[in-house]
Amino acid sequence: MRHMIENNHDLSSAGAALAATISGDVLTPDSPGFDEERSGFQLLDAHRPALIVAADNGDDVVAAVRFATENGAPVAVQSTGHGLATPFDGNGVLISTRRLTSVTVNPSERTAWVEAGAQWRNVIDAAAPHGLAPLSGSLPTVGVVSYILGGGVGILSRSYGFAADHVRRIDIVTADGRPRQVTATSDPDLFWALRGGGGNFGVVTGIEIDLMPVERIYGGGLVFDLEQTPQLPEVWYRWTADVPEAMASAVSMLTFPDVPDVPEPLRGKHVGSIQIAYNGSAEDGAELVKPLRELGPVIDGLTEIPYGESEKVFNEPDQPHPYRGENLLLRDVDPSRLPALVKLSSPQTQPMCVVGLRHLGGALSRSPEVPNAVGNRSANYVLGVLSLTLPGQFDAVREMHDEALAAWSDLAIGQGLNFTFGAVEQDKIRSAFDAADYERLTEIRAAVDPEEVFRANFPIPPKSDS
């Protein structure tokens, strides 16, 4: 029989006994470091738990889950906090895995064992000496596990598919407090659900992933003044029609502030940037991008780079900040609607809005050898809108994003949860999966977490018997 904690104070008091049994730290709102431990890359909001377990190892995670379930408390998990959507707020336990950063590379098998708190930077640096690279995303400071659980679209994905397609084993602690090693043979249903179904099924403590024989890419950015080249997104879209799978690209549009920290050619300008990551020779890559260079970029940053410098492709901000973002997965792009996206990113739009289109397809469209829960593989593009969101701007930002994406709803096939930064309604979560797959996910959730102990950012409820 579980003892039900009546309030946050009771849970905090009970945590003293837990602290004596683990090697990590147990923090309450009165503890030094509590606010730092619960914060993440997303500064728009933060988890507000009664108790934080800052785990040092997998045994600490097991103890934390057992403590929570024995006391009737829900659980949330955080490593880097990039994708925080709905903050955890209540009488519960936050398990912080940010200390679990070990990465072990097996070069002969081309695999890496990655602990739950590791960032892609940890894996990239460990793999590079062996001439290998992970299927990481655009920003190396993103957490590996959360990225893969959501599917994982990276700069090599048109060549190799989703990061979730290249997982060999997952170590997880389920709601019964039992540590499991999950593979395609040991537990095929849970293995299927974990790869693309999100963090709804337990606390992952480690994951074994494939590495790719990639040492260098041809990539970087071409930056344009949109006042001079407003046709940029249309030219890019038509160019993507026949590029090889080895060519990954995106176009983004925004207005830079007129401040000294911004490089002079971009300061106060409305710019468009084409991001390029070509998994091939520099000579072939340069030939492929000729039609884009003919538009006359104000900055040409394309060159051959080591994969260890792959962050240069998207050149995204790597400091925590408050933001909100939405997206739609599209079957195609309507060129006649692109001028409206250019306008949305212009200086006249307040609050500011970054608009991006990313080319999908290629290996992303094919099912992996071992099927998983990743949905909407037929999408050819993803349209995203993202805004720096300051106090008092939340409602205006949400309204602007909803209105912008509604204009593309007839071309949409669903939503990509890894490109969503903010609270998501249940119908949108459903749209991230094929209908039969969503139903299967609810059944698996009912089998491993019927009482909804785990409160994920994008929760999939357990299937009801009624």
From TrEMBL:
InterPro entries assigned: BBE, FAD-bd_PCMH, FAD-bd_PCMH-like_sf, FAD-bd_PCMH_sub1, FAD-bd_PCMH_sub2, FAD-linked_Oxidoreductase, Oxid_FAD_bind_N, Oxy_OxRdtase_FAD_BS
SUPFAM superfamilies recorded: FAD-binding/transporter-associated domain-like
What PROSITE patterns does the record tag this protein with? FAD_PCMH, OX2_COVAL_FAD
Q: What is its cofactor?
A: FAD
Under the heading Pfam families, the entry gives: BBE (PF08031), FAD_binding_4 (PF01565)
Q: Give the keywords, sorted.
A: FAD, Flavoprotein, Oxidoreductase
Q: Gene3D superfamilies per the record?
A: 3.30.465.10, 3.40.462.20, Uridine Diphospho-n-acetylenolpyruvylglucosamine Reductase, domain 2
All copies of the FAD-binding PCMH-type domain together span 44-214
Give the family from UniProt.
Belongs to the oxygen-dependent FAD-linked oxidoreductase family.
Q: What is this protein called?
A: FAD-binding oxidoreductase
Per the UniProt entry, what species is this protein from, by scientific name?
Saccharopolyspora taberi
